[in-house]
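Incident log, support desk, overnight shift.

02:14 A customer reports that sequence design results differ from what the structure should imply. Their input is reproduced verbatim below. On-call engineer (initials T.W.) acknowledged and began investigating.
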């Protein structure tokens, strides 16, 4: 096959794919501008080589040629049948590959409905977290990881490479799946990508185990000792945390490290329990919080302070569900949009605002959910 002719046909194939996906309005064709390199050929042999390839493609039904009868040159190459062009080039159409992908993912779309959206994005020739329709295997592996982690009865976190070796016989496979895992957990292809450690943490996986960090002038019972929390803050393995032995005035989880440390230094002598959630809390963190809540009176208020953005409200909804399981209601701490300075506000798209509102409603923060509609912005905790 003539190299220049193949290059032109590859360009036509891409245009045909876009037309087939409905993302191109004009009929796929190569015009004079696209054929400039051909028109500038000075060698008769080179021209005949190009023409021979194009005639062969036309015989196969891949293209329809228009010729200039005065000098015998091709002036237009229109797409014939996309499947015929794919076969001529030794390619596979996205439509064919997509059908295979649909069949492979069909059994997973009920438990992971976001996969339907992933398939639709692929149909439109868009990538999802760097993956295309040929990457179905990554999504199937990600589904295996999510299902495995959600099926565990244990509440302690596990080393990511141990779990990866157990599932795939490849200790580093899970670390290559952070994008698909993030989408499956959030359930939205348009959600802002998170750091991979946050994704693993939500699954209860870690590369390096992190302690659960507390602050407050309170006594805590652990597996080997009961004593006051160190000032300004202290970290313990989540599995070692059993109960509170003194009554707190309140419990407050804080999403971000900077704000937690500042609050800990200011209030470490107060009988108030502050807990660093480190973003989305892990299953071990959630289990430890459950034990702490079970050990204190029901009238002790429980608060959460997170980012005023989609991720922050999703974390709040997650913790609220856990708190609700212990017969309590999670209250917002400094998350009223009216209290956030104008200088800290960043414009948010309508889709982001809608998702923020939905997560606020899931946390049963109805007043804040209503306020979000009138304050379409995002901001982070730091600096507030």
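02:41 Re-run completed on a clean worker. Output:
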């Amino acid at each position: 096959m003539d190299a220049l002719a193949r290059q032109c046909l590859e360009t036509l194939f891409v245009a045909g794919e876009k037309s087939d996906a409905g993302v191109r309005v004009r009929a796929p064709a190569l015009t004079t501008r696209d054929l400039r390199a051909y028109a500038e050929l000075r060698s008769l042999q080179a021209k005949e080589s190009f023409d021979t390839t194009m005639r062969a493609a036309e015989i196969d039904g891949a293209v329809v040629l228009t010729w200039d009868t005065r000098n015998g040159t091709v002036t237009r190459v229109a797409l014939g049948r996309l499947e015929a062009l794919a076969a001529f080039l030794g390619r596979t159409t996205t439509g064919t590959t997509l059908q295979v992908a649909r069949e492979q993912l069909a059994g997973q779309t009920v438990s992971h409905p976001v996969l339907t959206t992933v398939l639709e994005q692929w149909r439109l020739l868009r990538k999802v977290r760097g993956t295309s329709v040929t990457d179905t295997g990554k999504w199937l592996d990600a589904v295996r990881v999510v299902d495995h982690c959600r099926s565990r009865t244990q509440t302690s976190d596990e080393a990511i490479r141990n779990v990866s070796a157990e599932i795939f016989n490849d200790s580093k496979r899970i670390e290559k799946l952070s994008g698909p895992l993030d989408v499956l957990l959030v359930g939205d292809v348009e959600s802002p990508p998170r750091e991979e450690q946050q994704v693993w943490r939500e699954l209860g996986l870690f590369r390096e185990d992190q302690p659960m960090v507390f602050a407050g002038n309170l006594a805590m019972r652990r597996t080997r000792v009961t004593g006051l929390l160190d000032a300004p803050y202290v970290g313990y393995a989540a599995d070692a945390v059993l109960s509170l032995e003194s009554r707190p005035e309140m419990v407050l989880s804080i999403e971000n490290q900077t704000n937690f440390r500042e609050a800990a230094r200011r209030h470490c002598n107060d009988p108030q329990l502050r807990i660093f959630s480190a973003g989305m809390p892990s299953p071990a963190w959630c289990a430890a919080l459950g034990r702490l809540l079970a050990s204190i009176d029901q009238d002790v208020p429980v608060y959460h302070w997170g980012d005023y953005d989609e991720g922050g409200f999703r974390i709040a909804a997650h913790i609220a569900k856990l708190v609700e399981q212990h017969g309590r209601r999670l209250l917002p701490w400094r998350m009223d949009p009216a209290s956030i300075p104008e200088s800290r506000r960043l414009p948010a798209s309508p889709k982001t605002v809608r998702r923020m509102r939905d997560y606020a409603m899931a946390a049963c923060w109805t007043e804040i959910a209503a306020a979000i509609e009138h304050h379409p912005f995002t901001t982070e905790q730091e600096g507030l």
